[in-house]
């Protein structure tokens, strides 16, 4: 499994140096440049991942911190991002103190959001992994119709790549293998339940015939 390099630090809101909710951030140490604390590398690199259609409507979204705590704030943010990126050829945008990498495919726009100081290449590796994994799961049809028909698989793909804002995997082959394994397990479980129910029905039927 390939993982982008990152240095761990406590999740925002954890640790002795964390500021109280709604309170001021801890001041820098004597002689320490202002803003240095905010630039410490973190495992919690991903703020959000979402997919919009070519009208800017949400199809899939996951937010991993409380930057946008309400649905209304999330939708407003997505609209702003779409308006800024839907008519450009760039792959990177900066909005509201965040770095956003994105990719379009037919009638879809895929976005990965990180803090302004996050490594753009790391964010791009997540975006590339997401697209390539979906490309396999959707059988090279990364478009709205096929995404809507395979939404469960799309969420499985995303969950294998990012968990709680932490990048778990950036190799699409590994992601696809894990998704297939989970799907097989689910299918086996459903099959086993069906077998149990059928066996119970047969037992009841024979008991009534006796």
Please outline the helices and strands.
Blueprint lengths: L47 E6 L4 E6 L7 H15 L6 E4 L2 E8 L2 E8 L4 H18 L6 H6 L1 H11 E2 L2 E2 L4 H38 L1
Antiparallel strand pairs: 1-2, 1-5, 3-4, 4-5, 6-7
Helix pairs in contact: 2-4, 2-5, 4-5
Please outline what is shown here:
This protein is α+β, with helices and mostly antiparallel strands and 210 residues long. It has 5 helices and 7 strands.
Rg over CA atoms: 22 Å
Share in helix: 40-55%
Low-pLDDT runs: 4-23, 25-29, 31-38, 188-193
The strands making up the biggest β-sheet line up spatially as 2-1-5-4-3
Give the mean pLDDT.
Answer: 80
End-to-end Cα distance, whole Å, is 58 Å
Count of helical regions: 5
- What portion of residues belong to β-strands? 15-25%
What's the main sheet like?
5 strands, antiparallel
Order of helices and strands: EEHEEEHHHEEH
SS-based class: alpha+beta
The rough form would be described as globular
| Secondary structure tally: strands | 7
Features:
210 residues, alpha+beta, 5-stranded antiparallel beta sheet, two-stranded antiparallel ribbon, 5 helices, 7 strands, globular
């Amino acid at each position: 499994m390939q993982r982008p390099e990152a240095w761990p630090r406590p999740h925002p809101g954890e640790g002795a140096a964390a500021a109280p909710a709604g309170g001021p951030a801890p001041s820098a140490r004597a002689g320490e440049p202002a803003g240095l604390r905010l630039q410490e590398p973190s495992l919690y690199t991903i703020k959000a991942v979402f997919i919009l259609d070519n009208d800017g409507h949400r199809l899939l979204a996951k937010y991993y911190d409380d930057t946008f705590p309400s649905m209304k704030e999330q939708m407003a943010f997505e609209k702003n991002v779409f308006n800024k990126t839907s008519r450009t050829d760039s792959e990177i945008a900066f909005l509201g103190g965040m770095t956003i990498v994105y990719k379009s495919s037919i009638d879809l726009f895929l976005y990965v959001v990180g803090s302004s100081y996050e490594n753009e290449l790391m964010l791009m590796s997540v975006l590339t992994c997401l697209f390539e994994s979906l490309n396999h799961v959707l059988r090279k049809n990364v478009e709205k119709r096929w995404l809507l028909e395979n939404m469960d698989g799309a969420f499985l793909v995303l969950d294998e790549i990012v968990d709680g804002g932490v990048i778990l995997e950036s190799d699409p082959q590994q992601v696809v293998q894990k998704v297939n394994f989970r799907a097989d397990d689910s299918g086996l479980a459903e099959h086993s339940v069906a077998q149990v129910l059928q066996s119970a029905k047969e037992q009841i039927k024979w008991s009534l015939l006796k």
